[in-house]
Amino acid sequence: MKSLLQYVIVCFSIILLTYMLGFCGQRSYQDLYLNLSDTVDYVGTEVCKNCHYDKHQTFTHTGMGQSFNLASKSKSAANIHSDSILYDVHRNFYYHPFWDQDSLMLKEYRLNGDDTIHNRIEKVDYIIGSGQHTNSHIYDVNGYLHQVPFTYYTQDGRFDLPPGFENGFNSRFNRKIGLECMSCHNSLPDFVLGSENKFEKVHLGISCESCHGPGELHVADKMKGDIVDTSLYIDYTIVNPGNISTELQFEICSRCHLQGNAVLEEGKSFFDFKPGMHLEEVMNVYLPKYEGDDTFIMASHVDRLKMSSCFIQSDGDLSCVTCHNPHISVKVTEDDIFNNTCKSCHQVNELHKSEQRENCIACHMPKSGSSDIPHVSVTDHKISIPGKKQQPDQGALKKFIGLYCVNNEAPSELSLLRAYLQQFEKFEQEAYYLDTAFTYLSKIDEELCLREWIKYYFFRADYAALVKWFEQITFNQRLTELNIQSYSNDDAWAWYRVGEAYYKLSEWDKAYRCFKQAVVLAPYHLDIQNKYAMALLRTQRFLESAQVFEFILRENPNFEKSYANYGYLLSLQGEYDKAAELYRKAIALNPDLLYAWLNYAAYHLHSENIEEAKKCLQEVLRIKPNHQQAKQLLNQLR
């Protein structure tokens, strides 16, 4: 009788566990895995290493383990020497990386004949990228992270500008490294709420917890002696991807190996995804589709694999870990590991045997260049039959079909609306994105998409329509609608855009009120603070404006725009020499900052130094040849 009872209990337990796993496969494991609670904290890789030393040792040699570290000679893949110089022909800047003892430095300079007319040197603090394809570089000013304008492309052994800096788009030392970038290229950082790119602390490399979830509860249990025999049972204090459904294993990889236009769900941030969740619970990832285009971007492994017949016919059983062991570097994984996976479904026919072509990957997943990263060769994860691919005509205009969501077959109309606006904002300023966005705006309840209406009018540069729409209700009512502080600064950006519309229309006091609310929500967003300071200046609040400029420059002494603007404020107060000193600092940081040269010309005119004023105006015309004010003034001086 007792054995029968035990048998029934065991059977019931199996049925219950099967039901729970099936249920969670459809939704998530958040109710099952205890470490997915928001109350459980991350502990860091070094803590995991104490018990899982073998896994740690091999993982640190993977691309993920080497994704981010301090800028050191051991981390750098580059062979840097005296001739390691790259030139940006569009912006006329030279870049020379060099080692100053153990510190990696980057010198930016400009020549006029044999004369150096601009020279700026910054210390590189971090190297991002494993070195398998690239090393890119980041510098840190009081926690504000920016990318510097050089990348080492390992496969070609060459220095060049980073992706997105080419063809006249070199943002020099001003490309911000925000939470979206850092949350995939590194472990989850200590990010400063109300900023765009300020960090209290950044970790060094992708951690164990990126795939296993936060480890605080797991560690606490082990320290108490609560050990689970994982050969017999599941330890629910930590996610083991091997114990969750194939679909949800895939979702873990999709979090970062599904590059594209990531649209967060309402109230979510890039901190919110945890292993065991569906990615669509936190974000939807969109890509543009063009007729006849089979090009792909570098981190599109998931998107490309989903296009493969092998994936489609596997009925969801094929995932990244079918071929990849996340703890072992692909560089030391034998080809047979991958090929044997193929052979588990496909028989090797006589043709392959006779030609000794049993390397499935080489033919069916060939390496090629990606459309977004130059000088690299990456494995195309779209498994296909070898053949000559039809290359799109590079000179022809690609016909845009639409944005499609890679990780969600049925995204909401609100998510699609946000995707089209975000595609325009971040990637391509094509009118058809805004046209489609307007179609969705017309169908969705206005109360659900206030920020999207603001974006739409702002991206159209229809500032009059924006303020007319905004003033349909009172300012105080708008304060109750747009008052949430978030990691994405959505409401702060909404206030900024409305403030900028008023500013463009010379309605200074209304602009001031909007910028003031924006900095309440995003106090460490220095671009917003800079516009707030200018609105204070325009409304004659000189003391407050000076305090904001001083705050910005304490936070980031390299914030070039504030030197020029603060100098203008000082000149209005008669402090001309102090103003000139700030103009010189702005120009030293950025010799192409047009209004710094204009302000500096005004200083020389006040000082009756006509020749120096002429030189400044000539610099303005170098930067913007059709600048009418500079032309007229220069003609008068001549």
The largest sheet is:
7 strands, antiparallel
Overall number of strands: 18
Structural class: alpha+beta
What's the mean pLDDT score? 89
Task: State the CATH architecture of the domain at 445-637.
Answer: Alpha Horseshoe
Q: Give me the Rg, rounded.
A: 28 Å
CATH superfamily of the domain at 445-637: Tetratricopeptide repeat domain
* Proportion of residues in β-strands: 5-15%
Provide the CATH topology of the domain at 445-637: Serine Threonine Protein Phosphatase 5, Tetratricopeptide repeat
Question: How are the elements arranged and paired?
Answer:
Elements (H helix, E strand, L loop, with lengths): L1 H25 L18 H5 L3 H7 L8 E3 L15 E3 L4 E8 L2 E10 L2 E10 L1 E3 L5 E8 L2 E4 L3 E3 L4 E3 L14 E2 L2 H7 L4 E2 L7 E3 L7 H4 L3 H8 L22 H12 L3 E4 L18 E8 L10 H6 L2 H5 L21 H9 L6 H5 L5 H5 L2 E2 L9 E2 L20 E6 L7 H14 L4 H13 L6 H10 L3 H8 L4 H7 L8 H15 L3 H14 L4 H13 L3 H14 L4 H13 L3 H14 L4 H13 L3 H14 L4 H10 L1
Antiparallel strand pairs: 1-6, 2-3, 3-4, 4-5, 6-7, 7-8, 7-9, 8-11, 9-10, 12-13, 14-15, 15-18, 16-17
Helix pairs in contact: 13-14, 13-15, 14-15, 15-16, 15-18, 16-18, 18-19, 19-20, 20-21, 21-22, 22-23, 22-24, 23-24, 24-25, 25-26
Question: Can you put this structure into words, describing what you see?
Answer:
With 638 residues, the chain is an alpha+beta fold. The protein is globular. The protein is 42% helix and 13% strand. The N and C termini lie far apart (111 Å). The strands form five sheets. Strands 1, 6, 7, 8, 9, 10 and 11 form a seven-stranded antiparallel β-sheet that branches. Among the domains are: 2-31; 66-205, no CATH class; 445-637, Alpha Horseshoe (Serine Threonine Protein Phosphatase 5, Tetratricopeptide repeat). Strand 3 (93-100) and strand 4 form a beta hairpin. Helix 15 (450-459) crosses helix 18 (490-504) and helix 22 (560-572) runs parallel beside helix 24.
